Amino acid sequence: MNLTLRVWRQPGADDDGRMVTYDVGDLSPEMSFLEALDALNERLTGSGADPVAFDQDCREGICGMCGLVINGIAHGPEAATATCQLYLRSFSDGDVIDVEPWRGGPFTVIKDLVVNRSSFDRIIQAGGFITAPTGSAPDANVVLVAKRRSEQAFDAATCIGCGACVAACPNGSAMLFTGAKITHLGMLPQGQPERDARALAMIAQHDAEGFGACTQIGECTAVCPKSIQLDVISRFDHDVLFALLHRIG
């Protein structure tokens, strides 16, 4: 299998970037997309050229590091699939594929396909925690949680913080990510003491980082590798509104 990869190359954050074309051959359809980039980098390194920098870690769709825009789509053409779980069988022999980094105001390019996503860390630091002294892990059924609420919390907790929602959103909003974190903690008993403060702190940090506002377009859910739905944003809006009302009251 032979592919033509047009890859965004940018030496540093303050440098101008450009698309560079590479022909990569002898690929197997069963290789992952990141393995194709590995093959390209082996060839570049062997010739003394600078390899393409890209983020990756677990390669199991868990860590959220593998953020690439492939042919204009965050994570590529397959739904509910992280880049590391995207296989070359999703493409055809001879395809020309554009590979770019996340695009979003706070997601500045560090080098090539690597972007700075520390803004997500700061949103989590602002309120994505609980202060309840839980001690050691309790037995599973000690704290009773309704099945529907536990399922909603678990679905939100599957967010891996990759940033695809930001890359796909026309407004550059991170509300799907922030809403997932709010929902994860807000649906469980342990998250109730800080619920109001958490909502206000996280939305304030979201806005301070420079992310845009959500207008419920839905592009974020279309590219989310964990299929997080828009209802987490509605729940976030609910928590922010009630926190403001409680503050006024």
Characteristic key phrases:
single chain, 249 residues, alpha+beta, Ubiquitin-like (UB roll), Fumarate Reductase Iron-sulfur Protein, Chain B, domain 2, two-stranded antiparallel sheet, 8 helices, 7 strands, elongated
Q: Can you describe this structure?
A:
With 249 residues, the protein is an alpha+beta fold. It folds into two domains: 3-111, Ubiquitin-like (UB roll), CATH 3.10.20; 117-248, Fumarate Reductase Iron-sulfur Protein, Chain B, domain 2 (Orthogonal Bundle), CATH 1.10.1060.10. The chain contains eight helices and seven strands, in the order ββαβββββααααααα. The strands form two sheets. Strands 2-1-5-3-4 form a five-stranded mixed β-sheet. A hairpin with a 2-residue loop joins β3 and β4 (73-74). It starts with a strand and ends with a helix.
Mean pLDDT over all positions: 94
Cα-to-Cα separation, first versus last residue: 65 Å
**Low-confidence stretches at least 5 residues in length (pLDDT < 50)?**
none
CATH superfamily of the largest domain: Alpha-helical ferredoxin
Figure out the total of helices.
Answer: 8
- How much of the polypeptide forms β-strand, as a percent range? 5-15%
Tell the overall outline.
elongated
CATH-derived architecture of the largest domain:
Orthogonal Bundle
What level of helicity do the residues show? 25-40%
CATH class of the largest domain: Mainly Alpha
- Major β-sheet profile: 5 strands, mixed
CATH topology descriptor of the largest domain: Fumarate Reductase Iron-sulfur Protein, Chain B, domain 2
Question: Please, how many domains?
Answer: 2
Strand arrangement across the biggest beta sheet: 2-1-5-3-4
How many β-strand runs? 7
Radius of gyration: 20 Å
Q: What letter string, H or E per element, gives the SSE order?
A: EEHEEEEEHHHHHHH
Secondary-structure-based class equals: alpha+beta
